[in-house]
Every structure is written in structure tokens, then in C-alpha cells.
Amino acid sequence: MAHGSCTDDVARALSVDLLHRRELGWDAVRADAWRSLAFLRDAQVDETGAFRNFRAADGTWLDDGGSQDSQGRAVLALGTLIQDAPDAAAVALCGRLLRDALPVVRRLTALRAISSALLGCDAALAGGLGGGTTTTLAALAATLRRAFASVDLDGDWPWPEPVLTYENALLPRALIVAGVRLGDDDLVRTGLRVLDWLIRVQTAPNGTFSPIGCSGWWRRSGTQSTFDQQPIEATATIMAALAALEVTRDPRYRRAAEAAFGWFLGDNIVGIPVALPGTGSCHDGLAPGHVNGNQGAESTLMWLTAVELMRAIRAVPAAPARSRARGPQPVLAGSRS
Question: What is the separation of C-alpha 285 from the centre of its chain, rounded to a whole number of angstroms?
Fold first, then answer.
């Protein structure tokens, strides 16, 4: 069996370190964050700016340029560090890596990769990175706008693909964030409506969060797959709900986040905890009557991300009662720098 590491998970690990920094301080996570950043630096191909994805245990790279998802996730992690890390050297390195990756980012076609890269550009802009970051974000947002312009947001399938697969809530989250950044209420409204639909179709009759399973996914006009449910779906929903909550202050999004978080702890259609808070790890999925025994990197990182995100969600002030009565308003509840 081959052993090694991948850019996808290293980028996620760096994002988790940055979330932990909010509670523990930079000194507690500096060494781990720099280790992940060094990996991303080595992963980037100098000639193209693309990030390789698979690295063997001996340090050998096994590909010349990773998947579109790995490009998006790397850019998201770099942008998050630029926004959050109080380390000038780390921020400077991330700025260089991200700027070098922009030509690759602008050629992305996969909607999830585009969404991740857009969120990375937004975070980098919030951290003060300029250059082509603004125009790249605007171009990525335009691609998402075109994708959703072709769907009926009032219909029974307000989705630009024929199949709902993984990390679906990433797309409406990117729409909301892009709308805030660009001052475009139409993008925000589209993101909120799509997120509302995802929340509705992924809520079981008993009110628990029940994400689309990876054993068959959900093809339009087909049957929604119930199992195997994966942690990445719960965490993606929490992230999107936080973006929506920050814009609208609508308590529905707080409830949606709590439901997705509860999924990890056993408030799911099987009634079995997926996460193991005592060890900090998480099972890879929820199957009929049991959990997947494997505890992989992605699943554990999704659980750790969810824990830190819930701290942020529970700290968001509630909307005044009068604002709640009017329903969610797709306008900024605050401004970004």
C-alpha cells in the first residue's frame, strides 16, 4: 500500500490551524501552520503556478498538477492565512504563492473549485492582498452567476448540474460571499435561495440534518441517496449557514447550522455519533445502522472545522425582533474591509 500526503488535506489542516488560532493564539499553532505552508510552497509548480496534489512518503511528487479541487482548496487556505495570521513572513509567502496561482485559478471550470478559489480570493482581499486578486474574484463570481442564471430558482431543481454530489453548500456560500464583496444583492439573493433549498431537501421528516449520500448521490428526477452520509456535507452546510447568518441575522440559519453540527453528535437519522469528541477524530461516514469504521484525515478535519465554526456562529448577535418579522434581508449586516 502506498503512503503519503495530499494538498487537499494539507490545505484543510492549515485552515483548521487558523481556526484554532482564534482560541489558542498564534504561538500554539505556528509550527503546524508553517509545516503546512511549506508543503503548499513545495507543491506549487514554478512554471505554471498550479499545485500538485499527491506526495509520497519519501517526498516524491506523484503528479505534475493536481485536480481542480486541489487548486481551489490551496488558494482558499492561502487566502485564509493572509486574512488571519499575525505573521508577516507567512503572509508574504502566501501572497506570493496565491498571486502565482491566479492564472491557473482563472482557468478553472469546475464549480466547486471555482467556489473555493473565490472564497480564497475574498479572504486574501480582506487581508489586504491586491494585484489581480480583485479581478480574479470578479471573474469567478461571473462564472457562478452564469451557471445559476440557467436554472429556475423557483422550481424543484434550482441547481446548475444534473446531479447533486459532494460539498454542495460550498456553491451558495461562495455566491453569498461574492455578493457581499462586490456589493451585489442579486448574488446574495441567489445564494440564499439555493442554500434554503439545500437545507430543505437535506432535512429529514424528524427535523434532523440528512445530507445526500455518496452511494448514488441524487440525480435530477431520480431518488435522493440516503447513505453513505459524509462529514464534509455537514461542515459545508455549517460554513454556508454562517455566511447567510452574517448577512441576514435570520435565526433559521443558526438553526440549520446547529442541526448540521448535531449530525456529528448523533442527532441524525441513524442516531449514532459520527464524531469522537474525546479523541478529536471522526468516522468517514454514516451508513444504515452503523458508522464507517475508518477515521480519515478529511473527516477528522471536517469535524474540527465544525467545532470552531460553531463557536463563531454562537457568537453572532441575534437580529432585533422587528428585523426578524420582515424575514431574511439580502443586505449586508456589516461591512468587510
Answer: 18
* DSSP notation for 146-161: HHHHTS-TTSS---SS
- Give residue-wise pLDDT tens across range 73-113: 999 999 999 999 999 999 999 999 999 999 999 999 999 99
pLDDT higher than 70, residue 24: yes
Q: Counting beta carbons within 10 angstroms of the beta carbon of residue 126, is it exposed (0 to 12), middle (13 to 18) or buried (19 or more)?
A: middle
Q: Are strands 281-282 and 275-276 parallel, antiparallel or unpaired?
A: antiparallel
Kindly report whether the global pTM for this prediction surpasses the value 0.90: yes
Residue-by-residue DSSP string for 270-292: S----EETTTTEE-S-EETTEE-
Contact indicator for 224, 218 with CB cutoff of 8 Å: yes
| Residue 312 burial (CB count, 10 A) | 16
Query: Residue 2: is it exposed, middle or buried by C-beta count within 10 angstroms (0-12/13-18/19+)?
Result: exposed
Percent share of the chain, pLDDT over 70: 94
122: which 3 cell numbers?
A: 475574498
Q: What are phi and psi of 275, to 5 degrees?
A: -90, 160
d(CA 117, CA 136): 9
- Is 329 buried (19+), middle (13-18) or exposed (0-12) by CB count in 10 A? middle
pLDDT digits (tens, 9 = 90+) for 200-216: 999 999 999 999 999 99
Query: Could you tell me whether strands 54-56 and 4-6 are parallel, antiparallel, or unpaired per DSSP bridges?
Result: antiparallel
Any idea of the CA torsion for 241, 15, 54, 166, to the nearest 10 degrees? -10
Q: What is the pLDDT of residue 322?
A: 41
- Domains in the chain: ranges and CATH: 1-146 (1.50.10.10), 151-337 (1.50.10.20)
**Spatial separation of the C-alpha atoms in residues 52 and 265, rounded to whole Å:** 35
Distance CA 55, CA 10 (A): 11
Nearest partner of 112 among 67, 53, 54, judged by Cα: 67
Grid coordinates given for 44: 506549487
